[in-house]
Amino acid sequence: MKPLQFFLAFFLTCVAFAGCKTEKEPIQYGKDACAHCKMLTMDPRFGAEIITEKGKIFKFDDINCLISFVNDPLNKSANVAETFVIDYSQPQTLIPAKDAFYVYSDLIKSPMASGVAAFATTESRYEQQQNWQGTELTWTELNSKFK
Amino acid sequence: MRYYLFLFLWLFSFNSANAEVLNVNKNGKLNSIKAAIAQAKNGDTIFVSAGIYTEGNIIIQKSISLIGKDYPTLDGKMKYELLTIAAKHVRVEGFRIINSGRSSMEDLSGINCLDAHYVIIRNNILENTFFGIHLSNTNYCLIENNTLHAKAAHEYELGNGIHLWKCNNASILKNKISGHRDGIYFEFVTFSAIIGNNSFKNMRYGLHFMFSNDDRYEYNTFSNNGAGVAVMYSSHVRMYRNNFSNNWGASAYGLLLKDIRDSEVLRNNFTGNTSGIYMEGTSRTEFENNYFHQNGWALKLQASCDENTFTKNNFTGNTFDISTNSILVLNKIDSNYWDKYQGYDLNKDGAGDIPYYPVNLFSMIVERVPASMMLWRSFLVLLLDNAEKIVPAITPENLKDHQPSMKKYDHN
């Protein structure tokens, strides 16, 4: 009986620790505040989130807030493990930042005036580009733009 | 020369005499506002009698006055933007504007001004609109005495009450705004004044400033808003005699200052807020004669603030007077009144003889570990606080008021 109990305990501990890997968390618009500019998130077409290596989650209302936050020497200790952005065409949906397609245009009125919208697919980006005629960017280009 | 002047005056008077008055009446010959606008010429006045007008989006591209008698109602049926103004010198007065459409792509509004200039919007009632009064690229406008109220099931279905984008020399006077996302929103707005407004129960901020320099706001009341008032990324903003009250919540502030330079915060009243003022990246700003009463934190001063001065403010009944996240002190805090000051004044000059330390140990701990708040007012915390007062270890030793006032300032 004893070894069984031991294994059970071992198994449960494993399960408990496996649960420790932090998953992305939806941004609660109207409740969560941006970690960088402190503004309350309101516009579900814009937003971003990072998960640090330690599993801490930071939420942002606009992509330029995320980039300024990550590049701020005060936040050096926060090693970013994963980065997500909100898909403009699917409000409130977080998608991996590296795989997203971006547009910069003066016509995009984002909460912190970055003028950037993110999309999961090139098709959905193309659809919006009809009105904006903005510059198309990749994640790396975007990072150097707001650094 | 004189002849020309006379001719000019004569032409001018002829012109104004020529301005017509059109009457729109539900039961009359002219029963549509759109038809009246189509007939009107620059300088004409259209009077609209009471009744419900559902004409969809009414576009004004002429310099006319549109005046409602006994509050005629413009109903957008949750589909349309109501009034779109794209001309100079337009006046809209005395309307009840209700049920604008909602859209995530466009900022549908009750009254929308695009490149309009010199517009007067006065004495209107706006109910259940997405954006209330929306101005872009519109200079020298006057928005006075309007009442705006919105309601929606979700926060993101709400737009801002009075929204200005890329405007200058605007006057926003005596409006009442409630239930919107931000009561008054300024983005890239300069040389403007916000006076005597009442902005309450809005979902996010009562007033929100972004990238707007050289503006002034006075005698406004901002109460019970989701997150208080935010003034961000601006310089030369003057904030006088405003009332910031009852803004409660984890990320709510009476006044949130972020990246502000060369501004003035004078004679304001901060009562019953989670944090009276939260400031980050604020420089060269004066805080004088303000009254901080019954706030959780009167002042949250982040490390990135420098060269600010705090003088002659009253601090009474706050749980914590000041909290900070650094030992370094780059701000001047002098001659304030603190109700927690326990010193004495032997030379009777009105200023305490020993300095007052407004940052207490526990507020520093709460700053780092918010959950420790539940130990507040326990015996242990009291002991720690007193020990810290005698031998400062964590609290910034230099953050002190050298001449705390013995008497409360009378700011009236």
At a glance:
Chain A is built from 4 helices and 7 strands, in the order H-E-E-H-E-E-E-E-H-E-H. Chain A has 147 residues and is of the alpha+beta class.
**Over the alpha carbons, how many angstroms does the gyration radius of chain A reach?**
19 Å
Q: Termini separation of chain B (Å)?
A: 56 Å
Taken together, the total number of domains of chain A comes to 1
Q: Can you tell me the CATH class of chain B?
A: Mainly Beta
Instruction: Tell me the span between the first and last alpha carbons of chain A.
Output: 61 Å
Summarize the SSE layout with pairings.
The complex is a heterodimer of chains A (147) and B (412).
Chain A: H1 2-18, E1 48-52, E2 57-60, H2 63-71, E3 80-86, E4 94-96, E5 101-104, E6 116-119, H3 122-132, E7 135-137, H4 139-146
Antiparallel strand pairs in A: 1-2, 1-3, 3-4, 5-6, 5-7
Chain B: H1 2-18, E1 21-24, H2 33-39, E2 45-48, E3 52-53, E4 58-60, E5 65-68, E6 73-75, E7 83-85, E8 91-93, E9 96-98, E10 109-114, E11 120-122, E12 125-127, E13 131-136, E14 142-144, E15 147-149, E16 162-168, E17 171-173, E18 176-178, E19 184-190, E20 193-195, E21 198-200, E22 205-210, E23 216-218, E24 221-223, E25 228-235, E26 238-240, E27 243-245, E28 253-261, E29 264-266, E30 269-271, E31 275-280, E32 286-288, E33 291-293, E34 297-301, E35 309-311, E36 314-316, E37 320-324, E38 332-334, E39 337-338, H3 361-368, H4 379-390
Describe the protein:
Chain A has 4 helices and 7 strands, in the order H-E-E-H-E-E-E-E-H-E-H. Chain A is an alpha+beta fold. Chain A has one domain (22-146). In chain A, the strands form 2 sheets. A 4-stranded antiparallel sheet of chain A has the order 2-1-3-4. In chain A, strand 3 (80-86) and strand 4 (94-96) form a beta hairpin. Chain A is elongated and about 70 Å long. Chain B has a 14-stranded parallel sheet, covered by helices on one side. Chain B is mainly β. Chain B is elongated, with a radius of gyration of 26 Å. Chain B has 4 helices and 39 strands. Chain B has a single domain (54-390), classed as Pectate Lyase C-like (3 Solenoid), CATH 2.160.20.10. Helix content of chain B is 11%, strand content 37%. The interface between A and B is medium-sized, with 15 and 23 residues.
